[in-house]
Amino acid sequence: MKKLYTSIGLFLATLLSAQVPQAFSYQTIAFNASGAPIANGNVALKISILENSATGTVLYTETHNKTTNAKGLVNLNIGQGTATTGTFGGINWGTNTKFVKVEMD
Known about the structure:
The protein is mainly β. It is 14% helix and 42% strand. The chain contains 1 helix and 6 strands, in the order αββββββ. The strands form 2 sheets. A 4-stranded antiparallel beta sheet has the order 5-3-2-6, with no helix packed on it. Strands 1-4 form a two-stranded antiparallel sheet. Strand 2 and strand 3 (57-67) form a beta hairpin. The protein is elongated, with a radius of gyration of 19 Å.
């Protein structure tokens, strides 16, 4: 019986110590005004997390300065950029729908 209680205790401790990830991966291809990929170029991105709709309240915003690869691909981790509004850790992911808005120059 002690082993059962110990196992249940360890399971609950593990469950209670679980944390929400502090970033998630995002990948995109950068195109110029003519529609061609921006190969090996510098791009600035502004990422916003919005609540309830694509035009909803901004919960969090961050910026990234990245260099594309030979095919124009950009890889980044949302949550690890330079925060300009709110905190990524302060987002309550369990309530309402969230939308990601990506702006690129």
